[in-house]
Amino acid sequence: MTQPTLEAARELSEWRPPLGVLSVFLGFDPADRGGAWRTELRNGLDSILETQQEAEHDRRVALRATAKRLSERFEDGDLRPPPRGEVGFVEVSEKEGTEHWFGTAVAPVAGACVEFKVDPVVAPLIDLCGHGGARGVALLSSERVRLLCCAETSLEELEDWELSVTMLDWRERKSQSTNNPARAQGVSASGHDQFDERLDHNRQRFLGECGGLVTRRLEEGRMDGLIAFGPAKDFESFKSGFNPAAGELFHGGDQDLISVPTGKLNELVSEVATRLDAERDRAVVERALGEAKGGSRGAAGLQETKEALAEGRVDHLVFDGAIGEEGESLIRAAMSGSARITVVRDELAEPLAEAGGVAALLRY
């Protein structure tokens, strides 16, 4: 089952099945062995069928048949969906229709686990595209770099590069006597200094080359962005060879993790990734509001942002995921104009309250 992508969300936003769509958002708690999500899904489907009792005959029949197929999909008690969630968009039809399903590394945040509308509910999908996707993790030391991929809450080791340092055997040997011992000691110290300088240069060059190798990995498209852990000096050397066009590079911390087993890194990486995502989203909100107040490339409030979207001027739309139906219309307008989209919630969305939950960075 594939991870959701912005391209998939864009295609879904343009999908209009004749009788409508059931949008399904299921979150799974690994500690829940009772399958509470199944009960929530059944209750949601029952509620939809009840509210659509006055709908035209063809739609009522199609909804009952589609709800039955959905229930049967998850009837098997041994069936465990992806680790944290599953999102589906199911065409309402009497016979089997088109379905789109995505596995998610984080639990979906939605007001209901299943919704019926004439078109897909894509706002929660956009939210998931911005969080929990595969990203690279680099563990740095002066003479070794490990590259891992973090996807679906698990880590996979991809590469392990090590600098080969050839050390000459130093041995004491008799030399011609000198009448100036201090001069002889100075020559010896100078030799060691030169060796240390060369070694430090080789280490920096090694880290820079590893930065280039990781860039090529990211350009393959499997990972979105990179978190690097290691001393600040090593990070700067690594960064010098990294091409930011391949993805965002973050310094996750100066911890020495080079020898830590992969299985013991999951919790730390997850915590840092969550923090960095929050910092990124907070910065977008602050910038959009700042531009709207005192700059020339910002919009705030529903009406002003809608006008900018209609004119194709929005570069980055940001809104509170709790605004509901308005969020869906904003997303569709933003996608038609190839704008970036960030959905924020709770504490991160609080600064947007003064702007009705909506702001944007403008192209011009």
Number of domains: 3
- Work out the radius of gyration: 28 Å
How many helices? The count is 10
Secondary-structure class: alpha+beta
Termini Cα gap: 40 Å
Helix content: 40-55%
Shape: globular
CATH architecture of the largest domain: 2-Layer Sandwich
Parts with pLDDT < 50 across at least 5 consecutive residues: 167-177
Mean pLDDT, rounded to whole units? 87
Give the number of DSSP strands: 13
Q: What does the main sheet amount to?
A: 5 strands, mixed
Looking at CATH, the homologous superfamily of the largest domain is eRF1 domain 1
Tell me the β content.
15-25%
What is the C-level CATH assignment of the largest domain? Alpha Beta
What is the N-to-C succession of helices and strands?
HEHHEEEHEEEHEHEHEHEHEHE
Describe this structure in words.
With 364 residues, the chain is α+β, with helices and mostly antiparallel strands. The protein folds into three domains: 6-129, Translation, Eukaryotic Peptide Chain Release Factor Subunit 1, Chain A; 135-167 and 182-264, eRF1 domain 2 (Nucleotidyltransferase, domain 5, 2-Layer Sandwich); 278-362, 2-Layer Sandwich (60s Ribosomal Protein L30, Chain: A). 41% of the residues lie in helices and 21% in strands. It has ten helices and 13 strands. It has helices at residues 6-13, 36-51, 57-73, 123-129, 181-219, 232-240, 266-294, 302-310, 325-336, 346-349; strands spanning 21-27, 85-91, 99-104, 114-117, 135-141, 144-151, 154-162, 226-229, 249-253, 298-300, 314-320, 340-344, 358-362. The strands form three sheets. It has a five-stranded mixed beta sheet, with helices on both faces. The chain has a four-stranded antiparallel beta sheet with strand order 3-2-1-4. Strand 2 and strand 3 form a beta hairpin. Helix 2 (36-51) runs antiparallel to helix 3 and helix 5 packs across helix 6. It starts with 5 loop residues before the first helix and ends with a strand. Residues 167-177 have low confidence and may be disordered.
